[in-house]
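= Protein in question =
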Amino acid sequence: CTYSHSVNVATYTMLLAKYLGIEDRHHLCEIATGGLLHDLGKRHIELAVLNKPGKLEEHERRRMSEHPALGFQDMLPRGDLTWEQLMMIYQHHERFDGRGYPVGIPGPEIHDLARMTTVADVFHALTSVRPYRTPMSTDEACQFLADHSGKLFDTDMAKCWTSKMKA
């Protein structure tokens, strides 16, 4: 369910921020709010696509990949979110090697909080029941993050998260 996923991603992102040295309570609350909103654009995606039990068709995959930009467009006019929070929404599917979406920008251009959100988002997705697969164990998900760090994920952030999950 998108709600529980968003709550978990918010919590994981805030924890990762703390592990990386962010201590200011107000900033941590802003990070948690950004994590809660990261998938807001999925409200524009048809339930049949969101809940599809098998592999997405190309047109469904393209539609799903619109959700970061749709969420960003929804939240931009509000005026009560920080730029960091907006980037958590917009850039959480960008990949460190530049092969993500919606823009395909490389790691150094991806906002730090969006890079944190990516680690949290993928870790939670991997360890959760999904209509199309069974969940991975924590160790398996940590291995996935390690195997793909520097390509999909910021190496330092993935390393920090996995070290805490294995502790």
User: Anything to note?
Assistant: The mean pLDDT is 95. The chain is about 60% helix and 0% strand. Residues 39 and 89 are 7 Å apart (CA to CA).
